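Hi V.,

You were right to ask for the full record rather than a summary. Here it is.
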Amino acid sequence: MIRRSKILLSVFLLTLFLIILQGFLGTFKGEGTEREKKLEISFYAEFLPAQELLKKEVMELLDKYQIHLYIAISEEKMAALTPVLKEYQRRNIEYSLWPVMSKEDGYWVQERNLKKFSQFLDRIFEWAKENKIEIREVLIDFEPKQFFELVDVENFGDFLFWARKTARENIGKSKFEQSKQVVRQEIIEKIRSRGIKVTATFSNFGLEEIKGFSTAAQDFLEAPVFGLPWDRIDFQCYNFPILARSSFTHPDLARVLYSLTERARKYCHTEISFSVGLLSPQEFSSEEVIVDIGAVLAAGVYRVNIYSLDGLLEFTEPEKEIERILQARPEKPPLTIGATWLIFLRKMGWFYLRSLQFLKNL
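Predicted structure:
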């Protein structure tokens, strides 16, 4: 027992030392000439009514700042979005489709609803053909159904309970491997065969296994992503919900975001982007979003997606908020004790998931 405790303590201290060392090495890393690249931003439009998207001032804002939109589309919204997308095509406003299903069907894409989602894609393509709607890109949003329960999580203890319950419900290696083939054949190939780009977006926790040594985090998230032929992979890094439910500070989270972006840029061989937010007057100001964008830029990634257009339009002067955001510059956040601790907790969480996946596979 004593020997085992010593081994665990040694592993703990070694992991902590490596995290701190990696952080300090990153601090002295050269910036390079890539920092001169231009920031490209997109906004998510999830709940805005079609008539709001058709307002003259909204379209002029999108056109003036060349903002690309990810527009959520469901069975119920198809008819209402038809005139919106036709008008956007006429005005050359860039958009991509972000298919979402009913809450009963899981809303986002998950291992358990892949067949239904594939059928939904068929209906979207039929609708687009009938109405002469151009589709250049489809966003596949992988999130487990248990994410709906996160609204009830108020503290770190609640989160640990939720994570343990979700892991036990979702982890299953053979099921995961089967779903990976379904994603390849029923989603990616179906979309790309029509000459349409396909992007996957999922939680940044998946970056813990970007080197390909494991699938446990993806299994936990019900998100078969790595190793498939996506045109781009987007990592969701929404810092506001964590700030609202933990003792971590924004500088802590910004530093973690910087580290994650560096990791993705180093090991991901597909085009990448990062999603930040939640932008709105009540939640995350443009100044806070700029800090996150600066961290992403400092790590060498220039495509950022902001959640959401819905929140942006709640500001008194949305145009001024856009101008502030576009002025974001690369800024590497300092290494903090909180960031080091959070990175360590992520590693331990991933190790737990790997162990659980291994035991379930016996």
